[in-house]
Amino acid sequence: MMYRHIELLNRHGYRAFALHTRKGFRLTHFAHQVPVVYWNTSLIQSDDIVVMPEYLGVWVNHNRSTAGLWGRLKKRFSKNRYRYLAYDLFHGPWAKVIYNQNPYYTFMGYPVTPHRLSNPYDLTSCLGTICVSEENFRYLKFAFPERAVYRIFYAIDATRFQPQSPKKQMIAYLSFKNRQDVTQVISLLGSRNKLRGFELTCVEGPEEVVAKAFGEASVMLNFGNIEGFGLPPAEAMLSGCVVVGYHGEAGREFMNPTTCFPIENGNIVSFVETVERVVAELSENSLAFSSMRERARTFIRETYSHRAEEESVMTAWAALIAAHQLQKKTSGVESTE
Q: N or C end of the chain, less CB within 10 A?
């Protein structure tokens, strides 16, 4: 999603890049045309805007010169020792925007005891934050009422995610999130033996593999319990699946009893009972839930379109750049944009 965001900005004439800290790294599991640059302190100019993810917030409190910090970082991040560069990002002179794709990561790394630690949303150089759902927006305005928040829309590709005909007796699910609940639900469905010939399929792989599986499946199980948006269930709905599972809070805007079978987080018994009921009806009539599936497909297609994504991203950035220009003007910095 960050890469798509960058592509949109470049398409509209902005010079936008993906900034990675490990030289040579770039995402390759999907097609894109995103220019990538690699971190060093001379790379970013004072007139630039740096966009940072929400989960690095606690680093605004770190002191790079503290004795032993480097050793602790090396031990803690054995596979990714580059997060210490977040210190430079937060404390550099450039303007900052926080791209918050999951508000439940906002305080990741903060202590569980009362504290007075800072957060990047209160930095004078923070122009605002971008979020991706109404739940995100509500959370962030509640947490930081003085901070500007802009909601953008994801685009879900209706040419890629579409139903195949006929649908298979297949129940698709992803296992990379909330594995404890995945294990319980899948194990119970197997041991109770009430799936009537429907096959459970764990979906793993790049986007085209997921799209193919969702297109073939009759049912999709969603286990994301705290989400910034929840792409998989939305993609499954667009693919014509009957979706059963957690709304993940943010998914409430498209997961409701008229479009799917939402399950309250952690209610394992209700989850399994609902899957068995859906399977029983589909085994009797493969066209069961046709109206629900069509309502879901229509809502996803119309709400999360490429046009909605493009308009929302560019509207947010018009406001952020205006704020940046005003900030420079009031601080006496000459604009070079």
A: C
